[in-house]
Model the fold of this input.
Amino acid sequence: MDTIMSYLDSMFAKLPQTQELERIKQGLLDNMQDKYEELLAEGKSEHEAIGIVIAEFGNVDELIEELDLPIYQEQGEEGVSFSDQEIEEFQVANRKTGQLIGIGVMLIITGAGLLMLFNAIGERGLNVAHLANLSDVLGLIPLFLFVAIAVGLFIYSGTIIERFDQINQPIALTTNQRKRLEQAYGRFQPIFTKVIITGVIFCILAPLQLILLSSLNDDLSSYGVAILLFIVAIAVYLFIYYGKIHESYRKLLGIGISSEREIKERDRVIGAVAVGVWSLATVIFLISGLVYRQWHINWIIFPVTGILFGGFSGVYSALKKE
Done:
């Protein structure tokens, strides 16, 4: 009988320890014990009786599906249960967070594009010196305004998703919850793939129009740079918005999940590097443009910074996971 009890304990170990489950477990144990004693009375050996009892009552998976019970994603780790409403709220919060962060980054890149556009208009469209200088100032106004708005959006987006920190832990999903999420994730995957392909195409075509405008007239290169930044801003928004939705599905389903401590440590390092790198890039951009009048070429600072920072984030995350 000890073998049956040990088997039952191991089968229920992956289920949440609630009073209802304890009651079901005890009822199942009583039935198994009655059957075991009945088999012994019929002349079965102890090993035969144990095998028959386990074969007849030991399918806990059917019980899980029938009662729609949550199952821990990683056996031996404490799981966190979420209701259907909390899961929906988490997904809505991720979509909103992705939208806010995407808009914030898009505003910063668009601000740099407007600065280039105003500079192009000032240098080629205005012949009066003080008006040309005024165009530089006018270009800085939307840049700093958009940066200020973006910072506000970043801070606000953090407060939206903050209450879902437990998602970074193993999640106990019910059978129906997991099935619905897997189906929704399967439907979303083709959309996500198409969006990524579209964004990559935008990023590839953006420099082509710059090359085309520069070949037609060198004076149009500044306009081409502004258009390039506008196109890249759209692509970056698509990457961030749909990337957050994709990330929410992976977190809920436990795909590639790390421990909460590892995630916080990784985010802290990447966040600190991001603040320093992008602040330095902005300072270099403004100094090279306002002091050295290198507006025609200094735009390259942002895409180069983005590529280098993206590479750093990817490599660092991969090393931390290993």
